[in-house]
C-alpha cells in the first residue's frame, strides 16, 4: 500500500444499513399490502423466528468480537491489521454477514409476512458486489498468499 488512506477495502456504506434498509423496505411493503406466512403463527414458528434472530445476533457479535480481540476493526471502511481465521471464520469467510442475514430471516418470521424475504436476494447481491468483492480484493492485496489459501479452504457464505 502506498499510503495509509489507500489501506482500506473502499467500502463506503456500512453493511448493517444495507440489511436494515432491505428489511425496512419489506416492512413498508407489509404495511401497504400485508400478506401472512401463516394465518395463525404457532409457538414453534415464533420460537424459530426468535431462535434465528438471537442466533444471527450472536453469530455477528461473536465474529466482530474476534476482530477486536485480534486488534483489528470490523469496520470495512477502516484499515485491517490482522486476518481472522478462527471461530466461525473456520466455516464461513463472512460470519457477520451470515449473522445479519439470519437475523433478517428471524425478523421476517416474527413479522409473519413474506415481503422482507422478497428484498433479501437484492440485499445479499448488493452486499456481495459492493462489500464482499471489495473486501476480498483488499485482503488479497494486503495478505497475499495467506488470504488466498484461506479463501481456497473456507466458503464465502456457508
Mean pLDDT: 93
Count of helices? 5
Model regions low in confidence, pLDDT < 50 over at least 5 residues: none
Which structural category fits the helices and strands? mainly alpha
N-to-C SSE string, H for helix and E for strand: HHHHH
Strand tally is 0
Q: Please outline the major beta sheet.
A: none
Helix content: 55-70%
- Please tell me how large the radius of gyration is: 17 Å
Shape: elongated
Q: Strand share of the residues?
A: under 5%
Distance between the termini: 31 Å
Description of the structure:
- The chain is mainly alpha-helical.
- The chain has a domain at 51-158.
- The chain contains five helices and no strands.
- Helix 4 packs antiparallel against helix 5.
- The protein is elongated and about 55 Å long.
Features of this protein?
0% strand; mainly alpha; 158 residues; elongated
Summarize the structure.
The chain has 158 residues and is mostly helical.
How is the topology of this model organized?
Layout: H1 15-32, H2 43-69, H3 95-111, H4 115-143, H5 145-153
Amino acid at each position: 500500500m502506498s499510503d495509509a488512506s489507500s489501506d482500506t477495502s473502499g467500502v463506503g456504506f456500512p453493511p448493517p444499513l444495507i440489511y436494515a434498509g432491505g428489511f425496512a423496505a419489506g416492512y413498508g411493503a407489509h404495511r401497504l399490502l400485508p400478506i401472512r406466512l401463516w394465518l395463525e403463527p404457532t409457538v414453534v414458528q415464533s420460537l424459530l423466528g426468535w431462535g434465528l434472530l438471537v442466533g444471527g445476533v450472536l453469530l455477528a457479535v461473536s465474529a466482530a468480537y474476534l476482530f477486536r480481540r485480534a486488534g483489528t476493526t470490523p469496520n470495512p471502511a477502516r484499515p485491517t491489521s490482522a486476518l481472522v481465521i478462527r471461530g466461525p471464520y473456520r466455516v464461513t469467510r463472512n460470519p457477520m454477514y451470515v449473522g445479519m442475514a439470519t437475523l433478517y430471516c428471524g425478523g421476517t418470521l416474527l413479522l409473519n409476512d413474506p415481503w422482507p424475504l422478497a428484498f433479501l436476494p437484492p440485499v445479499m447481491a448488493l452486499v456481495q458486489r459492493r462489500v464482499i468483492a471489495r473486501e476480498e480484493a483488499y485482503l488479497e492485496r494486503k495478505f497475499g498468499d495467506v488470504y488466498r489459501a484461506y479463501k481456497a479452504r473456507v466458503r464465502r457464505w456457508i
